[in-house]
Amino acid sequence: MPVRRDLRFPLPSERACDWHALGPYVTHFFNALSLLFPAGERYFIDSVRYYRDRIEDPELKKQVLGFIGQEAMHTREHIEYNETLKAAGLPAAHLEKYVVRLLDFGRRNAPHSVQLAQTVALEHYTAMLAGMLLDDETRIASGVPIYAQLWTWHALEETEHKAVSFDVWNAVMRPGLKRYLIRAAAMLQITLMFWTIVFWFHTRLLIADRHRGGHVRGIWTLMRFLFGRRGVFPTIALDWLRFFKPSFHPWDHDNRSQLARIDSVVAAVEAAGGRDKPSAVRARMMARSQKSA
Ligand SMILES: [Fe+2]
Ligand SMILES: [Fe+2]
């Protein structure tokens, strides 16, 4: 059952460009992903919420509530994360606007069923990437523990709720070929759009941070991180293909043993002052809003 955990992550903006142990090129891969989250997760919440009243199973209703609570917390913390990127001089605000515009276009033009299918496909993406991070701690190794803790917390909760939007999809759509084809087509469309945007944002962040140097080594490290034997793409390839099986369900790949770490991660975040303690960025935001009030 997804549980809403109200955690806060005081991220130091001076390490926003090189918090990952593998250096700035890999750091900016994660930073690019973070730019998608605030608008993306609001889209997930809205697309699931639209169908909430049609769900009859009380257990699934509770799971939807947990899903919405978790995604709302992720949205809040990635807004703060992206503020940290802005404070570091990166073009985060500019890039985020593209995601907002794109998803607003989707909201206005795509049928609600397609919006839900896109959410199901993107939730499979977050589940695949989360499983990959939790499977090998070196993939999220950080010179600054609070950054790794944020990504680990997000990955754990994505795993915890990975089947919720899928179960809503199966509960509200009539079974049959059409349901399968919409889901499969959404995955193809999302795959093309997701990686195009991630690649574009990642490149923009690297260009903005180009003065740092070490480019040959950085590109080599990034290529190994993405395409190496234990890289992102080889690791998720099979899971991606499994989505196209007509009888697919997210828990076919049972990785709930990874969730055993969640209490220790929460305790570590709290020990780092992660709950209810305003970070430097949040304090700046609060001061700004008080000034404009
Ligand atoms: Fe999330
Ligand atoms: Fe999610």
From TrEMBL:
<keyword id="KW-0472">Membrane</keyword>
<keyword id="KW-1133">Transmembrane helix</keyword>
<dbReference type="GO" id="GO:0016787">
    <property type="term" value="F:hydrolase activity"/>
</dbReference>
<keyword id="KW-0812">Transmembrane</keyword>
<keyword id="KW-0378">Hydrolase</keyword>
<dbReference type="Pfam" id="PF10118">
    <property type="entry name" value="Metal_hydrol"/>
</dbReference>
<feature type="transmembrane region" description="Helical">
    <location>
        <begin position="180"/>
        <end position="201"/>
    </location>
</feature>
<dbReference type="InterPro" id="IPR016516">
    <property type="entry name" value="UCP07580"/>
</dbReference>
<protein>
    <submittedName>
        <fullName>Metal-dependent hydrolase</fullName>
    </submittedName>
</protein>
